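During the reporting period the student researcher (J.K.) took over the structure-prediction task from the postdoctoral fellow and processed the backlog of single-chain submissions. One of the processed entries is reproduced below for the supervisory committee.
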Amino acid sequence: MNNLLKYLLTSLLFTAFLANSQVIINQKTTAVAPAWGPSDKTEVRYYYLPDIEIYYDLQKANFIYSNGTKWVYTDVLPVKYSSYDLYSSYKVLLFDYFGPKPYSNFKTHKSKYPKGYNGQPPQASPKGKNKEDGKPAEDLYKIKRKIKLLFQLNKRHPLVQDHLSNY
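J.K. obtained the following structure tokens:
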């Protein structure tokens, strides 16, 4: 009887230990997208609205914007954007940040997604000049020539020859 009691007690403790180790905690919280948000379900916490340089926090359902001196969290858009159409505006889904301060990357977001951004990379100006520095954009022919020349030069290198011989 004593051995049976020890066996049952040991089995019970072992089972409790196994059951406890099966608990998995999911730290990501699911947020409900607003009616004006993208329809596809994605795991993001923030939208960035490049036209007005404002963030929307899906988890807390509020907007985050700079008033010039500090970042403000609010349930509604600032008065100066009250006529802004959230339904037709472009929203950048920020997949890379889940912390409490998306504006810590504001300079990057502002340059990567300028006002008027619609999901396409910025286009070169009609005169063939790069918008950022005003220098003429290299044509595709010159770029291909440079790549071909670099490949031919590197082809002679022993490590490159060894790598190419494997194919």
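The committee noted the following: Residues 14 and 154 are 62 Å apart (CA to CA).
J.K. will present the remaining backlog at the next meeting.
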